[in-house]
Structures are given as structure tokens and as C-alpha cells.
Amino acid sequence: MILTQCAVCAAPLGLSLGKKCGRCSTRYCGPECQVQHWKEGGHDKLCKLIKKAGGAEQYNANKKYTEAVAVAAEACTEDTKGQTCYICTQALHWKTKEGLVRGCACRGTAGFAHVSCLAEQVKILVAEAEENKLGREARKARFLRWNTCSLCKQDYHGVVRCALGWACWKTYLGRPEADPLRRLAMEGLGNGLTEARLHEDALPVREAELAMLQRVGVPEAYMLSTMGNLAGSYATLGRFEECSRLQRGVYSSRLKLYGEEHGQTLVAANNYALSLLKLERFEEAKALMRKTMPVARRVLGENHEVTLRMRQMYAQLLCRGEGATLDDLREAVTMLEETERIARRVLGGAHPLTLRIESNLQTARAALQLALRARICNLYP
Ligand SMILES: [Zn+2]
Ligand SMILES: [Zn+2]
Ligand SMILES: [Zn+2]
Ligand SMILES: [Zn+2]
Question: CA-to-CA distance for 90 and 113, rounded, in angstroms?
């Protein structure tokens, strides 16, 4: 469940604290909040509606879905002017009256649709796959359509992805916890909220997902990717301590699971080092990079994006560590010059990583200049 707070005072309830309304399952920290909600919060009228919708969790998802569709259609107004839905061929949806969206890589007049029509289509495809007992891969391919446009094959992004995340979650949330589709829907909702930059909303979904995975027991690899997602949510909210604790866990588990040469282990090492950098624990981060960076260069090669990321990180650490020496700064500049050349050739000049390396290089050069000048001043006071 993702509703983990008291409906009145928002006190955190985790998974089992507090009490629930016996009819609609709305959660409260205790009887006081429950009574207040009934008398003053309008629950006396809402309770029946919520129960009819299928309980508090379903009611919340339905409501959030409608809001997210409105946000997505609003954001797409300019782009969708004068267009029609490629599924129902109308401009306005016959039932919901929602507007059109497009949030993929489709161009020209292709790919305009109603979120409701997209959702209805995938729902049917997935249900068919289940009825016909299609194989795992076929079922997975159909489920992917919740995230991916069937025309351009690219992932939906931004607020459209978020609306589809709610659509998917409201479709499968009533299933048993161990049902893989419910699990995937929860992950998809977290991704959708993150895509729409609603990090405050994504965090409780990610937390609930991890707790649920721990309860039902899934392969460790699956759990680790959820931990990584949750760490990402903590980082975007500036909660670096929690982020770093999770990243350390992911790194040590991957190390045990796959060994030090595996790409996933190296990515995890880099993520852990980044979290240490944010906490200004430079020496620990440097030590980790000195151990793992040579492995990446040897196993993945100099042109690999992960190698480039690690070298970029190490160069930053060299500049930012306490008492960075002239040699540190020189080493950082040389390393960034090298990686900039490679990134430009392999990833292109407009790639976010290339741009970041360039900006790091400018900062490192400026720091070196400053240090050199300071030394000259010291020599000739
Ligand atoms: Zn309360
Ligand atoms: Zn109720
Ligand atoms: Zn439509
Ligand atoms: Zn498309």
C-alpha cells in the first residue's frame, strides 16, 4: 500500500500502525483523528463513496489518476491542437472529456492519444496475455506498453509517463501483494512520479515498494534495483545520509553477487562514491575510486560511459578533497582533458556527461591557476 499516513494529521503509520475505518479502510493514527474526520472532515459523506470505489487505496489512485491526466493534457495543449486520438479518432474523449497527450518520440501527426485510450489498450493486451497463458517474455513485452509507445518504441516521459503510472497502478493495485503485475505497477508509478519531478510523492511509493519486496521475498537482484531507485529519490530530496547508506548496501551486495568486474558492480561503486562526495567524505570516496576505477578501465575499456563517469568523479574528488595539492589539481586537469576528448568522440558534444566534464574541467583549471598564483605569492612575498 502507498497510503502510509494518517488521513487527518499525516502522521507516518508505516504499514500497520494506527487504525482503519471499518468500512472504507481509510487510515488514521488513532480514534481522535478518526472522529474528527467523520465530524469535520466530511468523511461521513465520503466514506460510502470510498467504499464503493473499492477502498481508500483504490479511491486515492483513481483520484490521483484523474488529476494526473488533467495535468498531462494541459501540458500537451499546444502540441495537440487540432489533432485527434489515433485510437478512438476523436479530439475529446467521449466519456471522460479529457484532452489529448503526446509524450514520446512520435513526430508530425503521429502518436496523439488520450491517456484513457492508451491505458485501455494496454489493459486489454495484458489481460489477453494472461488469459491465453502466454509465456513470460510475451507477457513482459505486453506489460512494457504501459511505459513505451507502440508506434515509435520510445519510453513515454514527463507528465504523460506519470499519468500512465497512475493508470497502471489503479489497474493492478487490488491484486495480491505477490502478484508480479502489482509489483511492476508500483515500480512504474515510482518511475512516473520521478519522471514528472514529483520527488516528494515518489519517495513514499519507493519506500512502500521496498518494504513490500522484503515481505514477499524476491530475487536479490530485483531488490537491489529498487534500493537504487529509492537512493535516487533520497538524493534528489537532499537526504544524502539515507541515500549513502542504501548505496553502500547496493554496492556491497552487488560485489558479493557478481564480483568486482561486473558492470553493475562498477555502476554501484560509482553511485556510492557520488553519495560520499555529496556528504563531503572525500577520502573514503577517493579510496573507493582508486580501487574500482582501474577495474573499469581494464574490463569495460576507456570508451565506456561508466569508465568516463568514474574518471570524472575521481577528478572532482581530487579537486575537492581537503588540502588538495598542486599535483592533485594537475592530475585532475589532465584526467578531465583526456575524458573530455573521449566523451566528445564517443558520446558527442551535446551529451549531458560531456557537458558536465567540460564544466568540471573549467573549474579544475581555475583551481589550478589559483593554486599556482598562491604559490608564487608565497615564494616572493
Ligand atoms: Zn492523525
Ligand atoms: Zn470510511
Ligand atoms: Zn482516444
Ligand atoms: Zn510514440
Answer: 9
